[in-house]
Amino acid sequence: xxxHHEKVEEKWQQYWxxxxxxxxxxxxxxxxxxxxxxFPYPSGAGLHVGHPLGYIASDIVARYKRHKGFNVLxxxxxxxxxxxxxxxxxxxxxxxxxxxxxxxxxxxxQLDKIGFSFDWSREVRTSNPDYYKHTQWIFIQLFNSxxxxxxxxxxxxxxxxxxxxxxxxxxxxxxCDDNVAIFTxxxxxxxxxxxxxxxxxxxxxxxxxxxxxxxxxxxxxxLANDEIVNGVSERGGHPVIRKKMTQWSMRISAYAERxxxxxxxxxxxxxxxxxxxxxxxxxxxxxxxxVIPNSEFVISVFTTRPDTIFGVTFMTLAPEHELxxxxxxPEQKAAVDAYVExxxxxxxxxxxxxxxxxxxxxxxxxxxxxxxxxxxPVWIGDYVLAGYGTGAVMAVPCGDERDYAFANFFKGxxxxxxxxxxxxxxxxxxxxxxxxxxxxxxxxxxNGLGYKDGTKKVIEELEKINQGKGKTNYRLRDAVFSRQxxxxxxxxxxxxxxxxxxxxxxxxxxxxxxxxxxxxxxDGQPPLGNATDWAWDSVQCSVVSNQLIDDITVFPLxxxxxxxxxxxxxxxxxxxDAHNENxxxxxxxxxxxxxxxxxxxxxEHATGHLLYSRFWNKFLKDRGYAxxxxxxxxLINQGxxxxxxxxxxxxxxxxxxxxxNSFLSSKNLNIENSENFLGAALAPKSxxxxxxxxxxxxxxxxxxxxxxxxxxxxxxxxxxKIYYSAENVIKTSVDISLLIGNSNVIDKNKLRxxxxxxxxxxxxxxxxxxxxxxxxxKMSKSKYNVVNPDDICNDYGADTLRLYEMFLGPLEQxxxxxxxxxxxxxxxxxxxxxxxxxxxxxxxxxxxxxxxMYKSLHKTIxxxxxxxxxxxxxxxxxxxxxxxxxxxxxxxxxxxxLEPLAILVSPYAPHIAEELWSQLGHQGSISTVxxxxxxxxxxxxxxxxxxxxxxxxxxxxxxxPLDLTVPQIQEIVLADERTIKQLDGRxxxxxxxxxxxxxxxxx
Length: 1003
Known about the structure:
5-stranded mixed sheet
């Protein structure tokens, strides 16, 4: 009876779907275990073998926990809003909903083939109105909340209004904008409704504000920092500029300290925690106010080194700082404007990463030192960011390397004084950046002090003159929450006199409208500006035609949509109660599941999704909706499965020549210039060459063999010598499906028919095999190195794919894919099958196993249990192979061994395990059968094979019971005929016996 994976896998996948085998219950006496994958964005490319890696690992844990008696929630869904679907819609005219739906169907087909134990009854899609209804509701809760520093949590905005009505805001300790004016209760009560709303926007956790954003003109939208790579958009590689826009923002900065402290309570890798700590960027120091004389302007800075205040030589503002245009002198205006414009074309990440370039412009303005009253020149420089701190720095070149380099670069220019040294240290060659080992000099009342005492003293003095105070600062900035896109969650917001109003939750969802075009409107409005029915009737409480807008009862709706991270910032809670129409999840479901016990996903989300998720979870906890402070107890970042790309080398037959136009005309070459004459004369216009020749051309500019080939083919040009440059030679990746079998040899005919540009393309040597260059790199459709999991499942089976991906190496590490290695895993499963069956059917007996059989089984139980608990899945696969080999040698067909073995294998290779369990006579699924328990007694050795040595040299071994005494061992060894032969009548001087270890006869 042979193992046919295709029949077995189809049978059990149908069984699981029909019987809802993996559906979790929200009411169970079992302990709960919630294991979650970062849900996928359903792209049109489908899955490659790198995508399931984390899913397989989480599935092993989920299945193991079911065996261990847990009620396991292991759901799956789709992060289905986003820019790629919208860009595809723009290119093809297809509605994003249609392409998203089709892509999801493809993903589901592929996921089902691999045999994951997902609870599909709880599937979510962030682009479905029944899902984003609750995302809109959460947005409203954020809008109606503020962060109270006194209670250190978010409270309803009505609590703040009560304080304003009775006390004003002078004593309010809340997170708010920096420029909030102080008012009394009487003043508040006298304000108009619009004035009150404007004030409240300065406190709300989500608010409208003019913000510096990353604007991508080509995509027509704002991009988050993590959507920009090397200064261009990750999607499409388009230029990104900094631009001021009125945007919705979220006051994530209010949670900076809690986000920082919470990292100590969760089981995440140190690298991810450190990424978040750096992103949050806590700094302790002081805020200092520098007055611009004869004006109302004040430059506020935050510094971690207030002790160095007497070393301030100049000040630097971010080019986007609001004061730049107001303080710049007429003489400096042109230079400043040009610099600001140039800086706008660089992303914040690019500016932060560029530590080598020094650039800046003097504004012509001077600030006043708070103590000495000396004038301090004010510069702008792109190394200062508007969103970090106050967007301004007090530059102390003697104590900071970047300030030191800046001062020396502009030394002698207008607006750059000599560097002031305030340390009793030499700064002639470099700044002194240490916080110890110095005394302050040239520092007035700080002279003789060090870092700690100097910091304390200067803060006291700043507070006395009301020009500064001690402060803790965070790099973390409020998150821009608006996108100028179509395919995203609509805001539940309409505008009355330009002020945002929330739509009542009972009228949600506000459904994304139909539009004819997905691009921004001609006047620059977001794509929703193309909608004809996108106004809010505040009487009928419904979306109506724009033509009905009268700003009395019918008002315009928000045209921006929410960012991609909106729906993914709370989705794990929706899985807990996925079909609840009235709440995002019921209190009972939330209380039962609490949070995610194990979360698996990519490390690229360290400072995006994972930070926003923690923020939303903490907010919902504050408002009484979430049961826990942190969403994910344990996080594992799976490594990447790398592809092995294939490359060919090509000469592009386009070269300059000195041939005259009359000569070209005589050869019937209809070409206006001689730039591409060779390509016109020859068909085709490219030649495939070897890597060796490619390197020769790169080094020398031409190659003899290529020259000869060209001259032969170009005989109609009278064998005129053709020269070509190294720039005409390229290394290009080709699809690995064009290779013959698992070799590195390319199928030349397949290559020629692969893409139009290869049609008829010759090889320099047609007779020989062409060996491609292979390189390991990221598996990607664009690199043509993608391996489709469907092919592996069809050829070898899903269980083989699952085992092989785990076998490749530790989960967290990157590892290259090599299809050639999969045959060994496939062979292992066939060998496992043969323990249970021969050609005639089941051969399992009820005979009592031998001690060696029990030993092999329990070694495996121990190893696999430890490996799953420690997420070391690759070594489990090795142990399975060892065990099956041992049991095969022992000719084991004993039920007492093979039944537990099937359960052990089940988390890794569930289809074959289910079939084995069924063939052994059991009803139902193996998925909840109790996991085998390791018993140490089966691994306790009763005998020991001792090495017997004579004068330190081992001569033979002898197997003896471990419970023998030393005299008994000695008696047996001396009586052994091999010992007698070795001694040859001699009596040993000494006999060394260590029970359980060694026997040595000396002399």
